[in-house]
Amino acid sequence: MPCEDLQLASRRALLRFILESPLLWAATGLATTARARPELAVPASAAEALDVFQIERVARQKLPLPVIHYIVNGADDGKTLQANRDAFDAWAIRVRRLVDVSHIDTAVRVLGADLSCPVILAPVGNQQSIHADGELATARAARAAGQLMIASTVSNHSVGAIAREAGPLWFQLYASPDQHLMEKLLRDAEAAGCRVLVLTVDSNTRGNREGEAWWARAGAAPDGGRPPALPLGNFAGYDGRPRVGDVALDWRIIDWLRAHMSMKLVLKGIVTREDTVMAVERGVDGLIVSNHGGRQEESLRSTLASLPEVVEAAAGRIPVLVDGGFRRGTDVFKALALGASAICIGRPYLWGLGAYGEEGVSRVLAILREELKRIMQFAGTTSLAAIKRSHLEIAG
């Protein structure tokens, strides 16, 4: 092996060792329960995984460094990313006793979709960089679990191909200054049977994810620190250069979308009372409280902290969903108690996909449902409707 190649290989090996180091995990706020229990940290199969954190560790051992960076990185110093996770510790659950909890119903209906559990698979692009089957494996797992998936604009498989494998399916749209492209995407989504469009409104510009550049300069990823470029199925056959993201995006987009589609409209990225009021006044059908998993702006404001004011402003007129930092069934319970109709996950099911493929995604969904059911039993809540704000108090 030439000296230069040997040096590069050694550098990458060292970087992987550093990435797997508990010291780095602790320093970056990414330490997990699984890492405190090394004898339980590496399940032999998806079925043996005890929690989402164990599945994450398996995926980290299997995936290439650029893919790991793509999944884990947040904007700037990653403090908003960490805030999403830390926010759950601010709330304690008030459990109840002497309630018959022999039957627990986790089913919910959201904008016409009947789900077995209030956990929705958030839109994530480029999933074939994580597993060869990409979004198709995710869709099959969601369908088997009776769960809803939101297909991404920048998925490797087209929305039509995903729909053939999925159960209930929504489509996520990144606005584009190219109206012909948006019209095509809307037509394709409706033809695939999607009944809800999720418009992402927090990505008019790209987040400053310095971690990707740092690892690239350290020699971990000659391709620039990102996963390999793969075909994007929704742009196949498009006569032109697809452009997503529009710095000129404003509230007029709602009227434009209404004129070009029949799907219901959900805005993803609303985090304030003011924008909630404006969204409701303009007739949107639902909201997702989201900061893009801490990958866009470094606001230091968690989505769980934003949730109550959005719920209050919506005043029951439209459903409010939330994403960001969910890893436990207790996390789901807390969001429901704060008024969310359902929650969305991204990174957890990506770890499942990277660790075990379709089986891994299925196991992540099963774990969260099992954990949610368990805390519902402890809290004496036999249905989601029984989960109230009174089940929470400020921790400490």
Describe the structure.
There is one protein chain. With 396 residues, the protein is of the alpha/beta class. It has one domain: Aldolase class I (TIM Barrel). The protein has 15 helices and twelve strands. The protein has an eight-stranded parallel sheet with strand order 4-11-10-9-8-7-6-5. Strands 1-12 form a two-stranded antiparallel sheet. About 4% of the residues have low confidence.
Can you summarize the main beta sheet?
8 strands, parallel
Task: Indicate the structural class.
Answer: alpha/beta
CATH topology: TIM Barrel
**Gyration radius, rounded:** 21 Å
Our count of domains comes out at 1
How many strand elements?
Answer: 12
Helical residue percent band:
40-55%
The shape, in one word, is globular
Low-pLDDT sequence parts:
21-36
Report strand order across the widest sheet: 4-11-10-9-8-7-6-5
Characteristics of this structure?
396 residues; 8-stranded parallel β-sheet; two-stranded antiparallel sheet; alpha/beta; TIM Barrel; 12% strand
Give a nutshell description of this structure.
By secondary structure, this protein is α/β, with parallel strands linked by helices.
What secondary-structure arrangement, pairings included, does this model have?
Layout: H1 3-20, H2 22-27, H3 52-62, H4 65-72, H5 79-86, E1 91-93, E2 108-110, E3 113-115, E4 119-121, H6 135-145, E5 149-151, H7 159-165, E6 169-174, H8 179-191, E7 196-200, H9 210-217, H10 252-260, E8 264-268, H11 273-281, E9 286-289, H12 303-314, E10 320-323, H13 329-337, E11 342-345, H14 347-356, H15 358-379, E12 392-394
Helix pairs in contact: 3-14, 6-7, 6-15, 11-12, 13-15, 14-15
